[in-house]
Write a structure and sequence with these properties.
By secondary structure, the chain is of the alpha+beta class. It contains 13 helices and 28 strands. The strands form eight sheets. The protein has a seven-stranded mixed beta sheet, with helices on both faces.
Length: 541
């Protein structure tokens, strides 16, 4: 498993001053930032989805600490749904997929959600999973970890039939498709599924009596948040909702010039960071309330359970077992990761269709992050290349690039059994590591570990009946192992050893036809920007 210190956890976010709709600053926002701002004003439905997953995580926290009698009563109020493609739990470890759905038809009629009720009645019910988190529980060492997957991550198995799309589109084909996409493309087996609709977040915060958060500076979102006070502030349910919805964040209002000093510009990634911060504050608030207080427990569970839906295999007995096992876990110490991505700096064209703003999986960062999240090295990385058959399909229109890939793979020891070619999907394309069945996942992960760039795994038939097929993309590098020195290794009295250096060779890199290019990979978790709200400082008198 990679050392946690090797992951890029401290890459600072760009805090350059930007012009905003609320005033002028020293520099103008980029084309991409203006486009996002325009899209945010048009799109209403996505602004509400984050609260579903946050409420879910709070539900897990509350269930862990609540009284058994109350829990049994409230468990009967939880909804059930059949979810294909789940993996049966074996041993003490399980992964729970936490999803916030954008379904318009899931809300109840009310003034706050009138627009969604009308859209549902008119037949509009776009279903996406804008917030995707995986909660990993290890009963052996009581280790808990959380992984967020950015919603715009472009993956091969997002839609039924192995169709490429953003991962948030998988839910439109049912929860089983989202489960399959995460298992097949990220190598994370999912044991249980939990989903919430739009309605529960504010009620849960209000049931707690609100939360306290520290605001280093004034912050504003064009559609939701408008926090003009700084310092430690008490937030009710609707105010907290506005905070966790914010993904177009402006900060630092200058009263003299009546302008906002800066624009965050990080979109969904920034919102994930703030959501993680809010989760910690929420968990601390629950702890301060005292989980042994029956009135508090009943109020919280009453606010959450009716809005909660789980898969039919997630039985009451297993939930109660989780409560008993993880009741003493310090939630504030739970490691929170975000799958690293590479952003396409322009809108993405795939087979002639404009998919808008997308981000791509990135290796080796994703494999390292998933290993850290799961607390173990994937089993496939222990395989030797000479036990794996590989075929290579040129997806870039470059025979020389394919030949270079084949040469590097053979140098590593892989048995290349077939080659081929296909029409490029566009000027920018992912490299895909395809494998025919779950039984070949280990081989696919081994091959994945020797590639870098915008690379993803996929479940598909392989060329030449190989264990794994690589479809080359426009941003690909292959690991090359070679002796660091040409001289013979130095022999000692007990062992013979030699030093091996690992290098990478870039096979192909193609910029967008409109002049755009791929950005640099993001980190698994980053330094908190100075303007982001956070827990109130602890004071001593």
């Amino acid at each position: 498993m990679p050392d946690i210190s090797d992951l890029n956890f401290s890459a600072p976010r760009d805090e350059a001053t930007q012009t905003t709709p609320f005033g002028s600053g020293p520099t103008k926002p980029t084309w991409r930032q203006r486009r996002r701002a325009k899209k945010a004003r048009r799109s209403k439905i996505r602004r509400w989805t984050t609260r579903g997953v946050l409420a879910l995580v709070l539900c897990v926290v509350v269930l862990i600490g609540a009284g058994i009698g109350i829990t049994i009563y409230r468990l009967n109020e939880i909804g059930r749904v059949n979810v294909p493609n789940l993996v049966a739990k074996h041993g003490a470890i399980e992964n729970i997929l936490l999803v916030g759905s954008t379904s318009r038809c899931a809300v109840k009629p009310s003034k706050d959600f009138e627009i969604y009720v009308k859209e549902c009645e008119s037949g509009i019910n776009g279903v996406n999973s804008d917030v995707i988190m995986i909660l990993r529980l290890n009963a052996n060492d009581h280790r808990v970890s959380l992984l967020s997957i950015p919603r715009d991550t472009f993956v091969p198995d997002a839609r039924s039939g192995g169709l490429y799309n953003k991962v948030d589109a998988a839910l439109a084909d049912g929860p089983g498709q989202l489960v399959a996409a995460i298992e097949q493309d990220f190598g994370i087996p999912i044991n249980h599924y939990v989903v919430l609709n739009f309605e529960s977040f504010a009620d849960i915060v209000d049931a707690l009596g609100g939360v306290d958060m520290y605001f280093p500076t004034q912050v504003k979102d064009m559609d939701s948040l408008d926090q003009t006070k700084t310092g430690c502030q008490h937030l009710g349910g609707l105010e907290a909702l506005a905070l966790v919805r914010a993904r177009h964040l402006y900060y630092g209002y200058d009263r003299k010039t009546k302008t906002w000093i800066g624009y965050d510009g990080s979109g969904d990634l920034g919102r994930i960071v703030r959501d993680h911060l809010f989760l910690r504050v929420l968990a601390s608030t629950v702890k301060k309330q005292g989980l042994s207080n029956p009135l508090t427990d009943e109020s919280l569970l009453g606010a959450v359970a009716p809005f909660l839906t789980v898969d039919t295999t997630f039985g009451d007995g297993e939930m109660l077992s989780l409560i008993r096992t993880f009741h003493s876990v310090g939630v504030n110490n739970v490691p929170e990761f975000t799958a690293p991505i590479i952003e396409d700096t322009q809108t993405y064209m795939y087979k002639g269709y404009d998919y808008g703003d997308v981000v791509f999986p990135t290796e080796p960062q994703d494999l390292q992050t998933i290993s850290a999240f799961m607390g173990e090295t994937p089993a496939g990385l222990k395989l030797h290349p000479d036990r794996i058959t590989v075929s290579v399909i040129d997806g870039t229109g470059s025979a020389s690039a394919t030949a270079a890939v084949v040469g590097k793979l053979r140098a590593l020891g892989y048995r290349v059994v077939a080659t081929g070619s296909q029409t490029p999907v566009g000027p920018i394309s992912e490299t895909t590591v395809e494998y025919p069945s779950r039984a070949h996942l280990n081989q696919a992960e081994k091959v994945l570990s020797d590639l870098s760039g915008t690379v993803a795994m996929a479940h598909d038939a392989t060329l030449g009946h190989a264990d794994v097929t690589i479809v080359t993309g426009s941003d690909l590098a292959v690991t090359s192992a070679r002796p660091e020195h040409s001289s013979p290794p130095v022999k000692s009295s007990s062992t013979t050893s030699s030093t091996i250096a690992v290098t990478t060779t870039t096979i192909a890199t193609t910029p967008n036809s409109d002049g755009g290019a791929l950005a640099t990979p993001t980190s698994a978790t980053g330094a908190i920007p100075r303007y982001d709200p956070r827990a109130c400082p602890t004071t001593t008198k």
